[in-house]
């Protein structure tokens, strides 16, 4: 364990030009997604930096043989591999496409994972360094199987969005990909998370390609590569950005698929007894496996105090004072230490809230899958937002548990005095904790209307606007596919102000690394004070070349409007208050509207 | 991590282990009705597993931060 602890942070070397530059295939996997979504990813792939672009081959791997996808490939001059009658979902699609490809390295991207231009700069040099070390015959060096870059998302996830906390809490999955998996990588056994990873072709062929007997071919492939004696690394800087579903049904279905898949794969891999696994790798896998049981555990934790408070069913035989001596010091000490050790990405309480949120929907699938009752159908998670009545039904389990907990708190403490309340305080403490967590779940499940059509990105780009027969320099605040906002560098005089009024159509140009992007749009709103007036513009669809450069400008890089770390000054209780206030205000508005009519 | 912090952390781990031993050895209602007993065992098992998850993560992360 000490050896693991002492390992330094992963350092990515620069390109070593004394070494031959390997050829790379970049595979973009698609099944039935919207072509416009695919366009962003393909476009971004063409912008990926590589010292010799002729060694880079972009491939669209389409298992439903769509003419419009083929046309898109032609438009961007990339390879197209189509297929019909795919029996094995994403794994089948990838295995089929690999038979047409020969580069020593290949990368995999999901349709909705838009790569940044630095993706290869962060991954290929690690392979080149490894090749060099192996060629030099360094005994201690393990061959490198794959490099996983973190998953990042450019829209707010369901927790961030529905709790009105996009600017405070980081994406829930960040905890895994930027904390847990990086630690796994420090142990040379990072997990493959399905997209934005770079593979050594040889080893993927050697372990039989992408596994087809599971719902999570990613997790299983990564582990098989480790079992074959190849290491896997995880980098920390996002090099791609995707969409995360924000409707309740979509989020839950996606999570159920992961849960079932990981449990299946753990069975396939015999993680507890497999002799090919190193002990540290086994520990990581067992930990991953047990993670999926945390949701069943959460249900048990929620129900236990309710059983006692409402039905006098006592599942822990303990005297209050002994419990206080044995349990309390350890519990509070641990929480005190963990406050600054569990990292800023996920505080303990947020972890509990997220666990509570998934618990009612994950505990059964995990149990069923463990018993060998499989759900075989692989469903691609729908990323389009569609709120339906069914979505509302999904909040019933939370409502039920919330009500039960509330009744339990009241029933348990009603008519009790002094020492009685003290002795019961442990039960009350747990009931209250769960009550808070469940309240959050209710807020999350209630949802929040989505107004914006395309995600806005914080981007400070220099450019100009055409007014008074000349280009006036400007700087953007945020940009999106549908619009942007900007301020002029020099304050507008009267003549200019007259030309830049609400409702006028303006011509803009923005500077990119390569060229100017020319855009046209209508000024929809003026805000801010005189000195720093902000113009909000609705864009008209730009022409082909301009569109490609504009898309690259938007999507190349992390969306800075979302936080990477948790704001430690805002506690979940502040959050609960904010949520209550926002929703109460909305309710008041509805009431006043009703009374006015 | 400072030495004091490390010491406090180890103390916390030790206390948790003592707690779990106590939970396993002295608090399970062996003579309760079957349903209660099953639930009691599930609860204890969950607590042990949770602690494993927790310490595993800390073990890998603490010193590196």
Task: Annotate the secondary structure layout.
The complex is a heterodimer of chains A (597) and B (65).
Chain A: H1 2-6, E1 24-30, H2 35-46, E2 56-62, H3 67-75, E3 79-82, H4 89-98, E4 105-110, E5 114-115, H5 124-135, E6 144-148, H6 158-162, H7 174-186, E7 197-200, H8 201-206, H9 217-227, E8 231-234, E9 240-241, H10 248-269, H11 279-311, H12 320-326, H13 328-341, H14 348-370, H15 389-393, H16 396-413, H17 419-423, H18 425-446, E10 457-458, E11 462-467, E12 470-479, E13 483-488, H19 494-499, E14 505-511, E15 516-527, E16 534-539, H20 544-555, H21 572-596
Parallel strand pairs in A: 1-2, 1-4, 2-3, 6-8
Antiparallel strand pairs in A: 4-7, 5-9, 6-7, 10-12, 11-12, 11-14, 12-13, 13-16, 14-15, 15-16
Helix pairs in contact in A: 2-3, 9-10, 10-11, 10-14, 11-14, 11-16, 11-18, 14-18, 16-18
Chain B: H1 3-26, H2 34-61
Helix pairs in contact in B: 1-2
Describe this structure in words.
The complex is a heterodimer of chains A (about 600) and B (about 60). Chain A is about 45% helix and about 15% strand. Chain A has about 600 residues and is of the alpha+beta class. In chain A, a hairpin with a 2-residue loop joins strand 11 (about 460-465) and strand 12 (about 470-480). Chain B is mainly alpha-helical and about 60 residues long. Chain B is about 80% helix and about 0% strand. Chain B has helices spanning about 5-25, 35-60. In chain B, helix 1 (about 5-25) runs antiparallel to helix 2 (about 35-60). The interface between A and B is large, with 45 and 39 residues.
The largest sheet of chain B, given as strand count, sense and whether it forms a barrel, is: none
The overall pLDDT average of chain A reads 85
What class, by secondary structure content of chain A? Answer: alpha+beta
Average pLDDT number of chain B: 81
Structural class per helix/strand content of chain B?
mainly alpha
Low-confidence stretches of chain A: 1-7
Strand order of the largest sheet of chain A: 3-2-1-4-7-6-8
Q: Roughly what percent helix of chain A?
A: 40-55%
Tell me the radius of gyration of chain B. Answer: 15 Å
| Unreliably modeled segments of chain B | none
Cα separation of the termini of chain B = 7 Å
Q: Helical region count of chain B?
A: 2
The total of beta strands of chain A comes to 16
Shape of chain B: elongated
Q: What characteristic shape of chain A results from the CA principal axes?
A: globular
Our estimate of the beta-strand percent of chain A is 15-25%
